[in-house]
Amino acid sequence: MRDRPVVVLFDIDGTLVTCGGAGRRAMERAFDEHTLARSTSDFSFGGMTDRAIVREALRRGERDVDDAILEATLERYLTHLADELPRSTGYRVLEGVHETLDGLEREVARGRRIAIGLGTGNLVRGAELKLRVADLWGRFGFGGFGSDHEDRARLLDHGRSRGAAELGVSSEDVVTVVIGDTPRDVSAARAIGARCIAIASGSFARDTMLDADVTLDSMREVRLDHLLG
Ligand SMILES: [Mg+2]
Questions:
Q1: How far is the CA of 23 from the centre of ligand 1 (A)?
Q2: Mind giving me the DSSP string for 2-20?
Q3: What is the pLDDT of residue 65?
Q4: How far apart are CA 12 and CA 74, in angstroms?
């Protein structure tokens, strides 16, 4: 694997940053506007794409899952997210994130073919809002997003294609590494044949992510050989 081009796809929530509940509050405000009972959103959003979260809340609220309502709810969510993020006192970049990105960027500067991107269930605009708070958005050249596909494996595949294009090679020629914090990240990585690093940062215990190639307690423990082999 040493000389093969590598596409690295980072999850956002619970992997790079925690938004201190701003994402959930923004979703719940959007649900409330569509007269869904608050209890309909009483489930873990961890690892779900934004579109899948709205679909599940509509289903639990026994609402018809209508594309127009789904799109309108997502639009309202983005508006509320822009409002919630700047005043979210619990927002923080998780430990080890800057160091991991610095390490990868040093390898790129040395000439290694590595594309550093995102693999996230967030809509692209939501991802940008969440990462701009900490000036992290500009560190990722591309990504696979919840706006690409509702299914996490499919959006990772979009991220891989874009990363391969950035490196000027085809998707078949790259090693893909997915870094995430939920069992859904692990199963989606497996589904596309990617290497997976699971970070048990809080929401999910290590033993729920044993299918990952490497399971760590924090991004602080990530070494370059975990990422690049
Ligand atoms: Mg996550």
A1: 12
A2: TTS-EEEEE--BTTTEEET
A3: 76
A4: 18
What count of other Cβ atoms lies within 10 Å of the Cβ of residue 95?
12
Q: Which residues of 51-77 are buried (b: 16+ CB within 10 A; e: fewer)?
A: bbbbbbbbebbebeeeeebbeebbebb
Instruction: Compute the distance from residue 59 Cα to the ligand 1 centre, in Å.
Output: 22
Helix (H) or strand (E) holding 167: helix 152-167
Does an H or E element contain 89, and which? none
What is the Å distance from ligand 1's center to 119 Cα? 10
CB atoms within 10 A of CB 225: 9
Q: What are phi and psi of 107, to 5 degrees?
A: -65, -40
Distance 12 CA to ligand 1 centre (A): 6
pLDDT in tens, 130-184: 999 999 999 998 999 999 999 999 999 999 999 999 999 999 999 999 999 999 9
Q: Which amino acid is at 223?
A: R
Residue with tokens 């082999």: 229
Ligand 1 centroid distance, CA of 107 (Å): 25
Cβ-proximal residues to 103 (8 Å cutoff; 6+ apart), any chain = 224
d(CA 219, CA 211): 18
* pLDDT per position as a tens digit, 191-228: 999 999 999 987 888 999 999 999 999 999 999 888 88
